[in-house]
């Protein structure tokens, strides 16, 4: 009896599926582009300045660090390069704190800041080694970028720069060519799926001008010949606490949580040159997805795609058992469909994965009728079972 | 000689002739341009706005917390210090030390004494160290206040009271943001006290000051602020004194920081020195006031005279500045509250420093507090004046003509006799070449001897106060005695040289060689050498002490260019009078300086601080004048 009802449900679902496929071609195409296709997220956050009066650069970087952590990237997936000479600087009126706002609402240094490259370790060499993975064998895991070809990486840099260079701690500088070649090497070594390169420095847009590797999206704070300015200062700490570009990025990012459907296009549209006092730039010619399909959380967060299987794997290597009673039937049904339809339907079925946290608008709308039908059928099933 | 060589010589002759024609005019033009250029300096268009070059300073960006409770402290200190000012050194020092101890500072004192320029200078310095709580104390800032104000008479009551209250506030504050130790230094005995303290602090004994060693030290001093607020009244304007020993200047960033802080936090009118020309923010002043400021500043620089206690820190690579309270002026008066917040804010800025002040200019002129002329803009006039002298040697004196191998004249004579010579002389025969001998030994010897005389003069002047003991026996004023000795030395040196030259010229006349032109007169070579030497002195000095170089060159360039032996005795004596007037004693008498006092402070500054004004004048400037006396009395041929 039970098996019969189950069979009926499956048939209904398949029919429903086919009927939907006819009307939902556009959604499929959209789905193809909008899918991140990444399985893990990494962030490389670099503050290339040191010294007390560059407080704001450290605050910038720690603000981004806080944001990506808040949106789900764990410390193990963040490489934070920071001079870190500010929080415990004797000049700091509020010892062991870093604030990014004169209101001092939030201590960025509060708890659990894991700086991977500190002080004089922040060098061009170390930065490029981290990106390209050419680190010494005894380098601890926390100091490595252990990404793969399914990794989305956020590379955020801030400091003092100029036309096609960024200064590293008064001692050396990285040029836009170095950066482009490092990214190319990463691509060749399949170390990333997509990269968002974000830089806040003077003439920042020149830094991404030489990048030539695919799937890299870049944004910078100011164009050639423009300075990037600080946003405001704290008159007790006595220094500027944050830069304008980062400030307005954060203003957008602070409103986002892991379920957010905001796209990078929304972020870039929020840039207002009159507020930032410079002309932010976006370079998307190497990036294959349309920006209004790319979620902010694709780069700034790590939203885990939880894939619930209908099957229960027996760890003791015996026969695989199917247990419907422990799972909610609609989910199990979906998975069953996947199994039945095989590899041809693979693309489509993965789009129907239940995104526990990630709420892609297009995907949600295309699977909505299926849910309704499945629910009705489920109701009928319950009713039918109870009647018997 | 080949035809091409002759053509080359002809070309050269043409060039030299045209140069000869134009250079004499050009050198006067150079002088006029050089001097005229100096008069452009005060123009607002010539100077630029000052700016903060060191990113770390961030002046005036912090809230200041020096407030009324600190003002009450300062007022109490003021009343007590005023009542102390007639008491002995020991009692004053005990009071200051006690107050610093009460505030929680480590304190120490230093006795010193020195005999200089016939006087015994002695005193007790008091100082305290506020150890920064969160650093290792490798760096320090100094807040100093001398007991006496810059006039040497008034007690610096408010200055010391403000310094005490500020340091007490720094120590008691809840904030522990000091990255450098703070040293409060109350000096005694004028600038000698500062010198004694600095020498002991750096363990660098240089003058004859006998000082007890310092029992308390801190790190390398990064900067110093000296407070000079005489009396007990309130003030209307703030004077900035920055010229140091030998015309050294603090880094412009330090001055900019203080001025920025004053304008941003309290809008107190600023003066350069105590000029009486007041400046508000972004005020660049008019031509007259700028001119006045520049002249005053250049005068201080040229004399190498430190304009306050700050001026002695520069030798130890410490940038320092004196803040002076001007009692009269426009607008509202200000008091401890403003002084305290200016110092607090300035110290917060200096506290931000990561290394010595080095970003901004060390060589500059300030026509007004927020306008500067950098070395690149002010150096050309001095160089033009020196170049004028060099041109004079080369062309006006016809160094290529009269003093050397006269190839040009030869060619022209050769041209005329071309047909005959080509017939008579074989092709390979060398061209007959007339030589004009240059006797360089004697003129150089004259220069050396007069400088040697200069050194003797220097030692006489240096020992003026010992010599004045002898002069007292004769019953004449000490300075007259020294003057007489020095003048005698200079006269003997020149007279000896003149007679030597004259007897030599007789000898040369007798032994006239054939096949040679008559040797060039000695005075031409002597003048050439002297002018070259003068030009060298001016151009070198313009880098070390621009103001002194400018004053020297303005005085000497025109007389040195014009003067030469004349056939008329009257003209020779007129030239002599001018030379006597521009010699150091002449200048002192014309300017009606109190010679006794002038000698006293130049000698004291030389002995105690190492001011090079006196040796420069005696060993370099005066001898050149002496050489010129020799030149004008040399035989013409």
UniProtKB/TrEMBL annotation, chain A:
Family matches, as Pfam families:
Peptidase_C13
Q: Which GO terms describe its molecular function?
A: GPI-anchor transamidase activity
Q: Tell whether DNA-binding is among the UniProt keywords.
A: no
Q: Which InterPro entries match?
A: GPI_transamidase, Peptidase_C13
Give the transmembrane ranges: 368-386
- Cellular component terms (Gene Ontology): GPI-anchor transamidase complex
Q: What is this protein called?
A: GPI transamidase GPI8
- Species of origin reads Gigaspora margarita
TrEMBL record, chain B:
Give the CC-aspect GO terms. Answer: GPI-anchor transamidase complex
Q: Which Gene3D superfamilies match?
A: Zn peptidases (3.40.630.10)
The residues that cross the membrane are: 378-400, 440-461, 473-501, 531-558, 570-591, 612-636
Q: Which InterPro entries does the annotation name?
A: Gaa1
Organism's domain of life?
Eukaryota
What's one GO BP annotation on this UniProt entry?
attachment of GPI anchor to protein
Keywords, sorted A to Z: Membrane, Transmembrane, Transmembrane helix
Q: Which Pfam families match?
A: Gaa1
Q: Which PANTHER family match?
A: GLYCOSYLPHOSPHATIDYLINOSITOL ANCHOR ATTACHMENT 1 PROTEIN (PTHR13304:SF0)
Per its record, how is this protein called by name? Gaa1-domain-containing protein
């Amino acid at each position: 009896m039970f098996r019969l009802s189950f069979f009926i449900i499956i048939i209904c679902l398949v029919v429903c599926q086919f009927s939907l496929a006819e009307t939902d071609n556009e959604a499929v195409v959209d789905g193809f582009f909008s899918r991140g296709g990444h399985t893990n997220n990494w962030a490389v956050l670099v503050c290339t300045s040191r010294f007390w009066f560059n407080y704001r650069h450290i605050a910038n970087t720690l603000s981004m660090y806080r944001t990506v952590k808040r949106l789900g990237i764990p410390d193990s997936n963040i490489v934070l390069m920071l001079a870190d000479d500010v929080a415990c600087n004797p000049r700091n009126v509020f010892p062991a704190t870093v604030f990014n706002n004169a209101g001092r609402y939030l201590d960025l240094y509060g708890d659990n800041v894991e700086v991977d490259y500190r002080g004089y370790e922040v060098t061009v060499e170390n930065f490029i080694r981290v990106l390209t993975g050419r680190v010494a064998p005894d380098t601890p895991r926390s100091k490595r970028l252990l990404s793969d070809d399914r990794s989305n990486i956020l590379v955020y840099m801030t400091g003092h720069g100029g036309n096609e260079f960024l200064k590293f701690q008064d001692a050396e500088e990285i040029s836009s060519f170095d950066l482009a070649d490092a990214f190319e090497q990463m691509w060749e070594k399949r170390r990333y799926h997509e990269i968002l390169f974000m830089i806040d420095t003077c003439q920042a847009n020149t830094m991404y001008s030489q990048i030539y590797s695919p799937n890299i999206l870049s944004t910078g704070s100011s164009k050639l010949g423009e300075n990037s300015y600080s946003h405001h200062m704290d008159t007790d700490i006595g220094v500027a606490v944050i830069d304008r570009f980062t400030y307005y990025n954060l203003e957008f990012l602070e409103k986002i949580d892991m379920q957010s459907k905001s796209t990078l296009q929304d972020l870039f549209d929020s840039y207002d040159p009159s507020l930032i006092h410079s002309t932010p730039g976006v370079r998307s010619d190497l990036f294959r997805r349309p920006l209004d399909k790319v979620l902010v959380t694709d780069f700034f967060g790590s939203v885990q795609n939880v894939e619930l299987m209908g099957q229960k794997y027996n760890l003791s290597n015996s026969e695989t058992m199917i247990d419907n009673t422990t799972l909610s039937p609609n989910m199990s049904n979906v998975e069953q469909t996947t199994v039945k339809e095989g590899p041809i339907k693979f693309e489509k079925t993965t789009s129907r994965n239940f995104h526990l946290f990630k709420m892609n608008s297009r995907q949600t709308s295309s699977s909505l009728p299926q849910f309704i039908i499945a629910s009705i059928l489920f109701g009928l099933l319950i009713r039918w079972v109870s009647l018997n | 000689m080949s035809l091409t060589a002759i053509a080359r010589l002809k070309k050269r002759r043409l060039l030299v002739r045209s140069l000869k024609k134009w250079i004499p005019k050009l050198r006067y033009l150079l002088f006029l341009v050089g001097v005229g250029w100096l008069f452009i300096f005060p123009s607002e268009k010539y100077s630029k706005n000052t700016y903060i070059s060191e990113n770390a300073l961030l002046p005036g960006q912090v809230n200041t917390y020096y407030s009324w409770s600190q003002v009450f402290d300062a007022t109490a200190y003021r009343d007590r210090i005023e009542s102390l000012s007639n008491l002995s050194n020991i009692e004053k020092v005990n009071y200051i030390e006690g107050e610093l101890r009460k505030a929680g500072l480590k304190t120490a004192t230093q006795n010193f004494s020195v005999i200089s320029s016939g006087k015994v200078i002695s005193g007790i310095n008091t100082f305290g160290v506020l150890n920064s709580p969160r650093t290792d104390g490798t760096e320090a800032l100094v807040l100093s206040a001398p007991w006496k104000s810059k006039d040497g008479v008034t007690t610096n009551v408010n200055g010391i009271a403000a310094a005490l209250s500020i340091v007490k506030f720094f120590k008691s504050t809840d904030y522990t943001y000091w990255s450098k130790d703070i040293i409060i230094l109350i000096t005694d005995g004028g600038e000698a006290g500062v010198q004694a303290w600095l020498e002991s602090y750096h363990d660098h004994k240089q003058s004859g000051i006998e000082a007890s060693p310092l029992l308390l030290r801190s790190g390398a001093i990064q900067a110093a602020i000296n407070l000079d607020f005489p009396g007990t009244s309130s003030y209307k304007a703030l004077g900035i004194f920055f010229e140091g020993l030998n015309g050294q200047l603090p880094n412009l960033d330090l001055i900019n920081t203080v001025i920025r802080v004053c304008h941003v936090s309290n809008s107190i009118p600023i003066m350069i020195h105590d000029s009486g020309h007041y400046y508000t923010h972004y005020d660049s002043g008019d031509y007259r006031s700028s001119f006045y400021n520049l002249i005053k500043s250049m005068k201080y620089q040229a004399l190498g005279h430190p304009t306050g206690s700050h001026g002695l820190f520069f030798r130890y690579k410490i940038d320092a500045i004196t803040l002076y309270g001007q009692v009269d002026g426009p607008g509202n008066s200000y008091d401890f509250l403003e002084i305290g917040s200016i110092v607090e804010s300035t110290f917060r800025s200096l506290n931000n420093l990561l290394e010595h002040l080095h970003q901004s200019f060390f060589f500059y002129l300030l026509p007004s507090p927020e306008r500067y002329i950098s070395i690149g803009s002010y150096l050309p006039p001095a160089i033009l004046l020196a170049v004028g002298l060099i041109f004079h040697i080369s062309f006006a004196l016809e160094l290529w003509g009269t003093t050397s191998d006269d190839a040009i004249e030869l060619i022209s004579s050769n041209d005329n006799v071309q047909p005959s010579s080509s017939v008579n002389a074989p092709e390979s025969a060398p061209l007959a070449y007339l030589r004009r001998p240059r006797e360089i030994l004697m003129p150089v010897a004259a220069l050396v001897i007069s400088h040697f005389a200069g050194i003797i003069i220097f030692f006489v002047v240096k020992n003026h106060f010992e010599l004045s003991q002898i002069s007292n026996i004769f019953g004449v004023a000490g300075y007259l005695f020294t003057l007489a000795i020095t003048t005698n030395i200079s006269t003997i040196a020149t007279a000896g040289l003149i007679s030597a030259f004259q007897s030599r010229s007789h000898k040369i006349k007798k032994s006239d060689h054939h096949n040679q032109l008559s040797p060039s007169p000695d005075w031409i070579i002597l003048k050439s050498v002297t002018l070259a030497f003068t030009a060298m002195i001016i151009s070198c000095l313009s880098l070390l002490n621009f103001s002194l170089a400018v004053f020297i060159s303005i005085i000497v360039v025109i007389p040195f260019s014009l003067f030469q032996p004349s056939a008329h005795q009257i003209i020779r004596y007129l030239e002599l009078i001018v030379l006597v007037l521009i010699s150091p004693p002449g200048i002192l008498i014309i300017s009606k300086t109190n010679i006794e006092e002038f000698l006293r402070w130049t000698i004291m500054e030389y002995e105690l601080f190492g001011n090079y004004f006196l040796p420069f004048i005696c060993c370099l400037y005066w001898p050149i004048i002496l050489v010129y006396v020799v030149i004008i009395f040399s035989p013409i041929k």
